[in-house]
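Blackboard transcription, Thursday session:
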Amino acid sequence: MAEVIVIEPGRYQRNYWVDLWRYRELFRVLAWRDLAVRYKQTVIGAAWAIIRPFITMIVFTVIFGRIAKLPSDGTAPYALMVFAGMLPWTFFSTGLSEASNSLINNANLISKVYFPRLIVPTATVVVAFVDFLISFSMLLVLMAWYQYPPGWRMLVLPAFTLLAFLASMGPALWITALNVKYRDFRYVIPFIVQFGLYVSPVGFSSSVIPEDWRLLYSLNPMVGVIDGFRWCILGGQPPLYLLGLAASACVAVFFLWFGLYRFRTMEKSFADLI
Amino acid sequence: MSETVIAVENLSKRYLIEHTPGAQGYRRYTTLRDVIGDEVRNFARKALTAARGRQPFRTREVEEVWALKNVSFEVKQGEVLGIIGRNGAGKSTLMKILSRITEPTAGRVTLGSRVASLLEVGTGFHPELTGRENIYLNGAILGMSRAEIRGKFDEIVGFAEVERFLDTPVKRYSSGMYVRLAFAVAAHLEAEILVVDEVLAVGDTDFRGNAWARWARFPKQEKPCS
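(Written on the board underneath:)
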């Protein structure tokens, strides 16, 4: 007898992380399915990951850079600065919205098969990450166009990408759990994403924020991420505001813990609710 | 040979069904809008009754439904257990607890080894993906490893008789082909304990016979089914 499985009320929680590791194969397959479906259904497919941030970049550059005449970071072209901000923002927002709807979209799986539910929202982030990589190649093209050589700071970029991932997972887990219980919650997500786009320094540099307010502003975890991305890509022209970065990271970690906690408490009732 | 593989002791499962007076009938799912609306309505009602100096009455009735109550049984190695009963008798709830989809309210189940459960054929089939892709997807969902699926791939395809349409998206399949493919993956599921719920209700008689014949070849399996 290889192993004994005991099913009891409350037992579910105990070997959760072991189970999560055991089901890594399913994680891989679900991520692959989401990817395959995404690129099969849309004719534009991969191009969409380039077109969307590119057009937003043009609009923001014209509105914030030309019309509002906001300053760029150092000598960096405004468009490049916007794109450096768009990159983590699109990763964050697609990750958030895909993960938030993931459980509802996989309702048939949840009610028919057992596996750690955490797999479903995390697998969707893989799709957002592939989109991110595609947009990243677009960034390299832009940098070549503006003849803006990348520096050693680019090597720190994965750390900030990880922070963006953590920042999106926390709220996503919370919302996806709420989404199972209250089905109209999904209408809130586009609002959050839209709102966040203007609250976060995507179209403008965070250096336009008055000094006294910057720490408070950094409580938005995406502020730290976007500042970090710009620091890496634009060659460290606005020096990193470390206190703000720490604040952003703390908030992101707190939300991750909170989202996980909410998800785990609601998880066992998913199959009954969905 | 007579080792106990499944031991169920005093298993109970309770569902709470809410009846809210004033709400329009039964809701398929809750929405935040309804919850807020109900709360406001209840609050207003309570405030009104309190203002009139009466005892506040209960505004929400929660009905308890025991889908399972004190169920106990044992299954020994090599046994096949069938569960039959009327609609709503709790067969599916029992299957869901055995396959760990939902938690029991009380009692415990001890399973001697890993369980493969089959509550539906074709779970997770995606219409946009091809037959080949769906075999891997469905297999992984049912708990097969990639190597295992690869090893049985030809057998599955032969069993489903869909060789010619392997690279066609399953949305273009006829419903018969679809069910055969879904069934073929399920029929190649191997585990010490196999939980099956009503999945045999699909496919024609020949096909069903084939599936049973396949499962019957593995004498170590347990197959409770309803």
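Lecturer's comment: Residues 80 and 133 of chain B are 32 Å apart (CA to CA).
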